[in-house]
Q: What sequence folds into this?
């Protein structure tokens, strides 16, 4: 069985670490932590780790996966993702991209396969590099910017104090959603996650 590739999107460096745009990378870090793994530099211009996801029947280790965060800026995410898929021989149908989503209320997690990029430069770069939109997405809601704030400015701001407290619930929910996505098929996982 092919492994899964789970990619959390974000921008590199400490100045971006707390940004709303980096919530995908935050989820990937937590997923690695849960698996007691450390993301290490990979030649594909990413930090990654090979892990097992959850537990299979009879208490056996769950499916194998590579969890990764590109080391490039968001708008260049496609190169590292394509390189990881090539290196680990992972087909597009076993790629899960975790990213921030303006069109979903803060705190909600939604699952889908394919569709548009909604102006998200990381998704646009991945779609261009892979030549397909047909990959799974874990969309982590960050809500719309207040008032007339520009969306690009909003995503590059840190979560506010109230949101930071909620991240303690949001990030684990997104990790749980990934587990469900690999253990069940997409419609079954959506039925559970979209009801949270």
A:
């Amino acid at each position: 069985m092919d492994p899964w590739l789970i990619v959390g999107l974000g921008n590199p460096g400490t100045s971006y670490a707390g940004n709303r745009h980096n919530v995908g990378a935050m989820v990937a870090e937590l997923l690695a932590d849960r698996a007691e793994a450390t993301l290490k530099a990979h030649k594909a211009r990413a930090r990654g780790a090979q892990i097992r996801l959850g537990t299979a029947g009879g208490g056996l280790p769950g499916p194998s996966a590579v969890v990764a965060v590109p080391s490039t800026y968001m708008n260049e995410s496609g190169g590292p993702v394509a390189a990881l898929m090539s290196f680990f021989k992972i087909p597009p149908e076993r790629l899960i991209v975790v990213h921030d989503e303006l069109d979903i209320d803060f705190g909600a997690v939604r699952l889908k396969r394919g569709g548009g990029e909604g102006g998200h430069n990381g998704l646009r770069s991945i779609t261009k590099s892979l030549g397909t939109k047909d990959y799974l997405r874990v969309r982590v809601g960050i809500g719309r910017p207040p008032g007339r704030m520009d969306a690009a400015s909003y995503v590059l701001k840190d979560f506010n104090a109230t949101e930071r407290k909620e991240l303690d619930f949001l990030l684990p929910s997104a990790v749980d959603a990934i587990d469900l996505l690999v253990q069940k098929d997409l419609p079954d996982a959506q039925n559970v996650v979209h009801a949270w």
The radius of gyration is 16 Å.
